[in-house]
Amino acid sequence: MTMYGSRPTMKDVASHAGVALKTVSRVVNGEPGVKPRTAERVSRSIAELGYRRNDSARVLRKGKTASIGLVLEDIGDPFYAMLSRAVEAVAARHGSLLITGSSGEDPGRERALALAFCARRVDGLIIVPASDDHTYLLPEIDAGIAVVFADRPPRLIEADTVLTDNVRGAFDGVTHLIRGGHRRIGFIGDAPHIYTAAHRHQGYLDAMAAAALPVGGSWVSMAAPDAGSVGSALRRMLSGPEPVTAVFCGNNRTTVLALRELRRTGAAVALAGFDDLELFDLLTPAMTVVAQSTGEIGRTAAELLFRRIGGYMGPAECVELPASLIVRGSGEIPPASG
Amino acid sequence: MTMYGSRPTMKDVASHAGVALKTVSRVVNGEPGVKPRTAERVSRSIAELGYRRNDSARVLRKGKTASIGLVLEDIGDPFYAMLSRAVEAVAARHGSLLITGSSGEDPGRERALALAFCARRVDGLIIVPASDDHTYLLPEIDAGIAVVFADRPPRLIEADTVLTDNVRGAFDGVTHLIRGGHRRIGFIGDAPHIYTAAHRHQGYLDAMAAAALPVGGSWVSMAAPDAGSVGSALRRMLSGPEPVTAVFCGNNRTTVLALRELRRTGAAVALAGFDDLELFDLLTPAMTVVAQSTGEIGRTAAELLFRRIGGYMGPAECVELPASLIVRGSGEIPPASG
DNA sequence: TTGAAAGCGCTACCAG
DNA sequence: CTGGTAGCGCTTTCAA
Predict the structure, then answer these.
(1) Protein-contacted bases of chain D (C-beta within 7 A)
(2) 3-class SS at B188?
(3) How does pLDDT run across A95-115, given as a tens digit for each residue?
(4) N or C: which end of chain A has fewer CB within 10 A?
């Protein structure tokens, strides 16, 4: 065993095997033009010294890292975990490693992560934006780093983007509630500056307008979700002279929080939400949701990215994937008489 | 804007600003000893050229990458997503990036990922083992790469390890079912070569033995879980002359699969399982589980890792975290008369 | 089939 | 306070 902290280099292997450094390089990289006997001898030295190629040096020389970066909001959220899984699968197929970072919805952190990845010279970047200005990426894109946006579009720059049709999804969900006989329907969204939150809110408004239904003053909540904000929003829309009989939630977090609040109070309200979660189908009643193709978003984004990395130079493309209503019961509770 | 694919280097910045390369280096790295006026001029050149330090070169020179690798089973699994989140938080605090790879329970892929990370010269590695031989890591450890194991211990080598007390956890869960009056209790585990599966199985056997209860021939299933295997195992243990009245599941996946099967058949069986999931508390009945401190496992592993990276040379340490029984209802269904 | 030399972009070390 | 030089470990290029 070598001394602690040491690391054999190609040079070490070369002198151990009695060949030139370049010959070792050829063997390590499986390049042709090495006599089998020589290759054999080199391989033995490699094994004996425990040599492992230093990819840092390789990267420096070649300019390609065979790695991509993924900036998302929170790797602990099931939605993003699924997205990561899909991205990782595609990356693995391309022989690429995946570096992940969570922005926590903080624009500064998104930027710091993206630039840190660029400093490592990742071949490409998939970003779920938290920032409202992506011009900071222009020098990077100009220098040849491929960038694809997922879940939300870029701001102030153009790039390949993969989105869910959020307006249409929310429209379908809310329309479903309306068809169930509801006329007073609440919407619990997220911070209004978040693209998906804004679009789903729009889908809600469109559906209400299409059915010629008014929207009461206390029926909409657009705030970063936590137990407190969702709870009080729900209490507000369920009380007063015009209580809602159904609620549509803007994402998996608000849905779960609303669910907990409704369980606590025992209110019999129809509930549907954007995003599906693993156990939603086992609840009583099971959750009616508008489901995104989470894996498909990640897969598509990764494939667009590798197309760019592969040299594709076409104009920026935006892929919009459909969301689909899954009827399970919670959204089919009829409106209370009145 | 520079030509496509170009990238200004320190040398470019230096000549642009009319200073020596080393001065640029000082400014970029915030080193002292540069006159404010000079620094200002350099900063302007940096901004103007869109310069960004090439960390590949930096890494090559310094030997430290400020990045760690995490090899786990599947980033899409909520358990590992939570673990990642905790690891990433600690890494961020140490200014380190996180490279993640999913082994899919394949020893070859675990090894390939770990070695790929080492080739990138990550400063350290957190591994959730799929392999039963980690001697391949010896040259890496010898060369100074810190390695910590999480969720499952290393095989044939020694290293810091963070585990849950799986035997005790399963023992407590099964004992709880026994206290509820059950005498015939089934166990649905995972592939027996998986450490956690084996230990939880042991905890089950211990609990049965401690209560002097026999274990029927068809009461235990140790197989990689899918709807088919769990379904048939469950049908087997619920039929025949000695049907179980309660089932303990070995992890979140088997629990969910069993839950679905029981819903499908409508069998009234007490059910408890290892691992908690987000919506388990909202089911009817809510799931009684033995919960691990998932975030704590990740946090502890990451902290042990950075202690090693920081130069700590003490003997390998094994931290065992407790699992705690959460009583919610599904495990308190009394045994059917008979 | 093999080898020698140049240099990727940066930091460490020593001069001025 | 500033600059030059060496060299991290590898690949590229060209020569033998």
Answers:
(1) 1-5, 7-13
(2) strand
(3) 999 999 999 999 999 999 999
(4) C
Q: How many other C-beta atoms can be found within 10 angstroms of the C-beta atom of residue B226? A: 11
Within 10 angstroms of residue A230's Cβ, the number of other Cβ atoms is 24
Q: Is the pTM of this model over 0.90?
A: yes
Per residue in B63-90, pLDDT tens?
889 999 999 999 999 999 999 999 999 9
Query: B239-278 burial, b if ≥16 CB within 10 A, otherwise e?
Result: eeeebbbbbbbbbbbbbbbbbbbbeeeeeebbbbbbbbbe
Question: What is the spatial distance between Cα A311 and Cα A146, in angstroms, rounded to a whole number?
Answer: 9
Q: Strand pairing partners for B274?
A: B290
Mean pLDDT for chain A?
A: 94
With beta carbons less than 8 A apart as the criterion, state whether B275 and A278 touch: no
B residues 139-168 closer than 8 Å to A (CB) = 139-140, 142-144
Nearest CA in chain A to B54: A119
Nearest to A288 by CA among A267, A274, A269, A305: A274
Kindly write down the DSSP assignment for every residue of A81-106, as one continuous string: HHHHHHHHHHHHHTT-EEEEEE-TT-
Instruction: Give A60→chain B minimum CA distance, Å.
Output: 6
Question: Residue B124: which of B302, B298, B294 has the closest Cα?
Answer: B302
Residue with tokens 């990740």: B298
Are the C-beta atoms of residues A68 and A101 closer than 8 Å to each other? Answer: no
Domains of chain B in start order, with CATH, are: 10-53 (1.10.260.40), 63-164+294-321 (3.40.50.2300), 166-292+325-332 (3.40.50.2300)
Give the integer Cα–Cα distance in Å for A261 and B151: 34
